[in-house]
Amino acid sequence: MDPTRSVLLAGATGLVGSQLLAGLLADPSVIAVHTLGRRALDVSDPKLTHHIVDFKALPTLPRVDELYLAMGTTIKVAGSEAAFRAVDYEANLAVAKGALAAGVRRMGVVSAMGANARASLFYSRVKGELENALRQLKLDALVIARPSMLAGDREAVGQSVRSGEILAQRITRRLRPLIPANYRSIAASAVAHALLREVPRAHGVRVLLSGEMQPR
What we know:
Layout (H helix, E strand, L loop, with lengths): L4 E6 L4 H12 L3 E8 L10 E5 L13 E4 L5 H4 L2 H21 L4 E5 L11 H14 L5 E6 L3 E2 L11 H13 L10 E2 H11 L5 E6 H4 L3
Parallel strand pairs: 1-2, 1-4, 2-3, 4-5, 5-6, 6-9, 7-8
Helix pairs in contact: 1-6, 3-4
């Protein structure tokens, strides 16, 4: 692995994004981490540079080796389907295209279980549309993580608690042996670790199902 990797991360304040950031900063092979966000980032590190941006009018992005996309919301938080799409599809794709123009050839993205551009469920359809759009980019590697319900402390990263995730965690704890691996609640840290492992070494398109990302 290249001992002088530089990376770009969008969504560093989220549940998976914060775990990605921690992993990248702790990795000795990563010499520079650039993050994008609308507000200041409450993290400091000698190799971290945070860029406050407008995702609807991105500036020229820094030249890096890898991009990690971890931006996401819910329709409830966003307020409408259009606002949800603006984040989960439009902002992520804008960053991907900007990073590609700056030289990126490896990307990892946090999608969702059931992502499908033809899905009847709006959430799953938007996730699938983003996956399809990213597949059209000229990349050496694209790693798509499709986690089930995420487990983690959303309050610790300043996000509202999602009742569905809490319920999924409880069910998984009680019935784990009976639940297929792809449907069990999964820790955000496990998703981040899977992306951090696969993006630097993948070739072509690699889809990580939730069961594959579960710790052994």
